[in-house]
Amino acid sequence: NSEEHEYSQFYLSYANDYKNPQWVMWILDYDRMKPAVNVSRKDQFHNDQFIKGANTLLDFKNDSLSLSELLPTNFSSTIVHSIYQIDKGHICPANDNNNSTTGMYDCFTMANMSPQYHIFNNGIWKKVESLTSEEIPLDIKMKYGYNSYVYVVAGPVLDKDASCYKKIGASKNVVVPEKFYKIYLIQKSDSAYDAVAWIIPQ
Q1: Phi and psi dihedrals of 171, rounded to 5?
Q2: Residue 196 to residue 61: CA distance in whole angstroms
Q3: What are the pLDDT digits (tens) for 140-167?
Q4: Contact 30, 141 (CB under 8 A)
Q5: Cα–Cα nearest to 115, from 91, 80, 139
Q6: In angstroms, rounded to a whole number, what is the distance separating the alpha carbons of residues 78 and 193?
């Protein structure tokens, strides 16, 4: 039960039963990773007009009642907000779209968001995202050539029935994934590639 849509700079498949993107795919080259002019990030989160079943802005309220499904018993509201805060976690990140005003806007669609604990979103997931603005551009320029491409696929690991996950949202139907994956396929030549992949628990 999925919907797909091609945005200006990425392609997305959405799992309606989980209210999460199941995979997002995009292609990078050096010019996109190191654009001559950066489009500044604007947090333009917006409900998706193409994916009818996508989660919405209302599903990411961070009040104690909304987060109660995620919590061990007897947790204080202070701990709720410091540890269990849920972020709108990009799957295709803003930094990979800062070469285009349209791309920057598109990547803030709610269909590209998955519930991520703040400590995960602002920690290890952010470090993995930064590879395409730091290490990988240098590699493809110095080792493989200026015109090499990087193919990226990422998303939450949805390997159980939706009923087995903790959920948030106005209707308590937005799955909070337990793990995320990211795959980089780096073109070395016309017929050779390097690959690196992670599955990261949150």
Answers
A1: -110, 15
A2: 34
A3: 888 887 778 899 999 999 999 999 999 9
A4: yes
A5: 91
A6: 47
Whole-angstrom Cα distance, residue 202 to residue 116? 7
Cβ-Cβ contacts under 8 Å for 32 (sequence gap 6 or more): 9, 96, 99
Question: For 64, which DSSP code?
Answer: H
Two structure tokens written together for 100: 């285009």
Beta bridge partners of 23: 13
Is there a contact between 103 and 31 (Cβ–Cβ < 8 Å)? no
36 pLDDT above the threshold of 90: no
Per residue in 102-153, pLDDT (tens digit) is 999 999 999 999 999 988 999 999 999 998 888 888 888 888 877 788 999 9
At residue 58, the 3 state secondary structure works out as: helix
First vs last C-alpha separation in the chain: 25
Dihedral angle, C-alpha 63, 92, 166, 48, nearest 10 °: 70
CB contact at 8 A, 61 and 77: no
Please choose, from the candidates 160, 177, 159, the residue with its C-alpha nearest in 3D space to the C-alpha of residue 168: 177
pTM exceeds 0.85: yes
Residue tagged 């950066």 (tokens): 38
Token duo for residue 65: 């009642």
Query: Among 8-12, 44-48, 170-174, whose mean pLDDT is lowest?
Result: 170-174
